[in-house]
Amino acid sequence: MKSKRPMIRNRKKKTELLTAYNEDMNEIGVFERSVVHYNGLWHKVVQCWIVDDSDPKDIRIYLQRRSFEKKSNPGRYDISAGGHVEAGESVENAMLREIREETGLILKAHDITEIGTFREISGKDCEFAHIFVCFMSVPPFSPGEEVIYMVSANADEFKSLSEGIVNEITVIPAIKTGLMTEEAFTVNPANFCNHESFVKVVYPYLKKKF
Asked: What band does 18 get if pLDDT is binned at 50, 70 and 90?
């Protein structure tokens, strides 16, 4: 008698549940992520800007290049790490989780510092962002499937790009393999996600600190 092979079922991706809020940031319920976005409900996200402060004359921030498989902003340069705060999850744990999933860095709570909050609206996407920074020189990045690679940009130049003062800046690969050791890349309004939180929260914090 032939033994029966176990039936292999397709694993469904875990449904992401988010806590929704009104404009006063009072909870109004827990819904699937798609419902929250479709209805333009306020929800919490986390952003971490990883900063290399080893050279005070050239403070650099790390950006990720988003996978081209992402539904939103495929292939664009973005914050070092960021994402949604899931229902029942603390802001701090959400930040550490996103950093691990996107950059491969396994950090502890004392490695990151929350420096402020910021409300961002993009179309029907209404986000209440908790902003973190992490200071690290030459981070041992090992990006997950959502990220192609990491680069670093001069903080002053990135601010100018974010404000539209310049149309393009040069960034340096953070993970140097093969030909990338001699390459530099360019970031412009067409290929990066412009977050007001950098100009309004992160940059002032860095200038005050340095």
From this structure: very high
Closest CA to 63 of 141, 5, 9, 7: 141
Q: Which of 188, 152, 184 shows the shortest CA–CA distance to 167?
A: 188
Count the residues in the chain.
Answer: 210
Query: Given the DSSP bridges, would you call strands 17-21 and 42-52 parallel, antiparallel or unpaired?
Result: antiparallel
Within a 10 A sphere around the Cβ of 135, how many other Cβ atoms? Answer: 16
Instruction: Determine the average pLDDT of the residues in 130-141.
Output: 96
pLDDT, tens digit, for every residue of 146-196? 999 999 999 999 999 999 999 999 999 986 544 444 567 899 999 999 999
Report, as an integer, the average pLDDT of 136-140.
93
Predicted TM-score of the model (pTM): 0.88
* Among 185, 210, 100, CA closest to 147: 100
Rounded to whole angstroms, how far apart are CA atoms 47 and 80?
8
d(CA 69, CA 75): 8
To 5 degrees, how large is the angle CA 122–CA 200–CA 18? 45
Rounded Cα distance, 39 and 82, in Å: 22
Give the count of alpha carbons within 13 A of 183, CB side only: 11
